[in-house]
Amino acid sequence: MSMLMSKSARGHERRELILRSAAALMAERGYPAVTMIQIGAAAGIVGSGVYRHFESKPMLLSALLDRVVKAMLAGTREVVAREFTGPALLDELIRTQAKIAIDNRALVAVYLRDAGNLPAEGLRTLRRQQRQLVEEWIFQAEAVAPYAGEVQLRTVVQAVFALINSVCTYDNPLPAPRLVESISTMARATLRAGLALPA
Question: Mind listing where the DNA-binding region sits, in residue ranges (predicted)?
Fold first, then answer.
């Protein structure tokens, strides 16, 4: 039993290493320019060994993007389930989203640039998850600003996401905690201005 568990743990660790290596390479070079052999080399695995964990490069991309969107959804739902209300809830949503994005900069960069390379079914799944995320934010924003219309709410939420995610598209030298606070402050100001909330 211990040998089976050890083998399973090693397989999980190797899969995680492949995903991290793929995210870093794709963020740097773009999905089309990266091969499975290069991903394997970056992970210290023979190129063919990558196929034991992912049957194709599109499947690997799907696993990467599924991971980052699920992290965003889970973070949002966790905040909503806590005792925050009103503008404080929106502030915490922003801080949580910023931390997830900055902790997963390579994944977010790949998500922003390369989602269109997913197979059709994978892209449909990703778009559905994206809609769930945006709709949850719109629902919470509407509770704070019931006077705002659908178009205004959607515009503000999308602007906040764009602002937070933009920091993942270039090499920012700020330490992660300072970057989270900086981008959160800007995103909060954007949301308050867009919804005409007190500063």
Answer: 35-54
